[in-house]
Sequence to fold (935 residues):
Amino acid sequence: MESLTLSDVEQKYYSDLFIYCDTDNTKKVASNGRVLDLFRAAQLPSEVVLQITELCGATRLGHFGRSQFYIALKLIAIAQSGLPLRVESLNSVKDLPLPRFVVGKNEAEARHAALYQDADSQGLYPAAGTALIPRPPGRGHQNKKAPPSSTSLPAHEVIQPLAPSIETQPETTSPVISPHQSPPTSPHSWRKHKRQHSGGNTDRQQVVAASGAVWTQFREPQTGPGTGDGMWSSHSPPPLPSQESWESTTIRTVASATTTNEIQRQSSSYDDPWKITDEQRQYYINQFKTIQPDLTGLIPGSAAKEFFTKSKLPILELSHIWELSDFDKDGALTLDEFCAAFHLVVARKNGYDLPEKLPESLMPKLIDLDDSAEVPEPAAEVVYSASPVEVTPNKSPSMPSLNQAWPEMNQSNEQWETFSERSSSSQTLTQFDSNIAPADPDTAIVHPVPIRMTPSKIHMQEMELKRTGSDHNHPTSPLLAKPPELSEETKLPPTMKFVAANTVGDGYSSSDSSNSDQEPVTRQRSQSGASPEALKVVAPPPPPPRPQQSHSRSSSLDMNRTFAAPSAPGQPQPSTIAFPPAVPPRPLPTQTSVPLTGHRVESEGVPAGGTVLTATTSPQQIPQQPNFADFSQFQAFAASEQPSSLPEIDKHSEAGQVEKISEGAGPLRAVKSDGPADERTTATVNSAKCSSGPLAPPPKPVRRRLKSEDELRPEDEQLGPQKAGAIAAPLTAQPSIPRSIGKDKKAIQASIRRNKETNTVLARLNSELQQQLKDLLEERISLEVQLEQLRPFSHL
Amino acid sequence: MAVCIAVIAKENYPLYIRSVPSQNELKFHYTVHTSLDVVEEKVSAVGKSIGDQRELYLGLLYPTEDYKVYGYVTNSKVKFVIVVDSSNTSLRDNEIRSMFRKLHNSFTDVMCNPFYNPGDPIQSKAFNGIVSGMMVQTG
Fold:
């Protein structure tokens, strides 16, 4: 890796950069800010930069030695070219462009400082604006080495080449003054430039444009010494009358204000050869005016054609330039488009190849820029932020020149904006529209439907399950709290919906309850005779809005109340109760019937549990209970209910506690409509829940419960009513809590047994059916064979 | 994916013709040429029946055993012809229509270019790009 071969250009460039970064002049560059800024300016993702750092060995050494630095620079160039970072590619990649670093406005400053050690540069420093670190005025050669700021790294890079050149060539210290001086090393492009110039561009436009192009071109190679000189030398006037104006411009730039522009140009050349400098732009604007006095107007295609034909470029290339620059494809050129086209023409005439796509800096702005016509005054201008790449807008807070640069920054900002607008131009916009199609309302989540995790709810659901037998498979669904369920709920019968809406505060529970309501209702219908009370659930009209909407739990309490009360009240109420969410029973279910109906929507388990609890715990417990207390009630209840609930549980559950619970919830719900049966089921469910054990993971058990409920639904339907009865008995029995644990285990085991039995039964059934299927298939095959045999004869 | 795309001027000479290079280009040129007759036939037929209104998309001009030829004519009597491989059965009518639409759009862009003289061969890179995108990607 250490054996790095660099071309002369690279060598020079890298050495300049190294010198720039080598602030301490120790011949080894620590990972100081400048180096990092330099790397950052390379516009590579940070991981790439890290990789580069590692590859070049700086991490190993802890600092950048000269060789490491060179390697890093070469890797940056490789990365910028899009090639994978490999050590082998260091020497194998040929014709690698020089690494490019984003130029900040500071670069203008830096360059300026490097070039001009006069007060003008001082004035320009502040004007640079983007520099994070204000550069002390009056820097001369020193400035070349002293980085004004981290952001001016690129500037420094530029400076570096200039510095040595300036130092080495004293006569060029004031290149500005003597534009005619030829630099010792002129980049080939410049030579070509001069050739072109001398080619006899009598067209003034061309000359000026060429000079502009010279500048850009100058930026491009960025070889070491003589860049600044080269620029000037390239400016060395072509033998044309326009030279004076051209020189005057250069002198002007030298003078003060415009120097910054130049610096900017130079700096910008680092990152973007297509950037239009202020002078160029001004020139273009003037030319635009000759064709179209209104700067906001359009140049028709024919006029533009004539104009650009004068440049004597081949029609094919002009056609391509037009394609690139007519951004809105309207056959006419706006000011921006015209400038872009002109710039491309200039570039082409100076030997640049036309790009395949319009460079970003040439993208026409969608917003009209009034200040495009305002050339920043020499006094302190600054950064021509034509390129959105420039960081300028952010970094010129303190610089007084900022104000002046502001219009430019605005321009750039607008360019930024417009550019983005451009990106969403007509073609893409349409595509966008199609993509923006609103999400499928069916999939739209109405609102999150969290599953109620309160154990009590689960208990309630269990109890419901038990009560309602296998009819209800849905209870778990609400617990799942899927948003789609919510949407499904909307499809529910109005009663259900209404109930859901009534859920106190719990949109979620309401969804649950509504879901559960739906299902139990349907199941109940299916049961028909099985649970007459369940049928009643379907019957009742939408319950009145629950009063307790204030707090969620209250609904459960209400349910409790309703359950408690209701064994008597009759079935319609219990039916409503059937679906209340399994929220721990409220301390004071003040209203029974109302909440019942309302709560129905709530998670089924809770109300069921609540009601059950109320039933079991009796009113005295209810008032005292906070929501959580209900849990214990459930437990107690469950414990007490376990013995009775076990048989039901066995019927319901197929596998494990979870399913038991879910089953309990299912039947529980269904049973709820049965009134006392509901209570029983809830109790059983509750107990099942308890038995199933930990209330901790309520949602999961609930879900499984639901599933199992589904599976067991056909079976449970028959079992439901039975369970309800069974549950009712134990329900009224007792309230002890401590026994719950032991009962839980037994219940679990019982349910396991039951599940296994069901399993075997189903397995047997399955095998029988399989056998039948096989027989049928064989029959069918034989029949088909017969048919085939008979067919040929049919023709005869 | 088209195998050959051609743009024929009003005077029935090609403004742009490009085929998948791996195959015998001359064959495609000939196919396109012969398809012009069918295009004329369709254009005249449609014109008479509907009158002023005319469908730009002509549809399948004629199929051969190897490929199918689709046609499209603009209001300025510039014809687009797309030759599609028959084995490519997945191409539906809609896709062909969209291909023609894209062609038409880029042709319009070419026309908007003041440096393009109508009747010149189309040398626009953008147009080339669009066409390449539609051609069969056979290396």
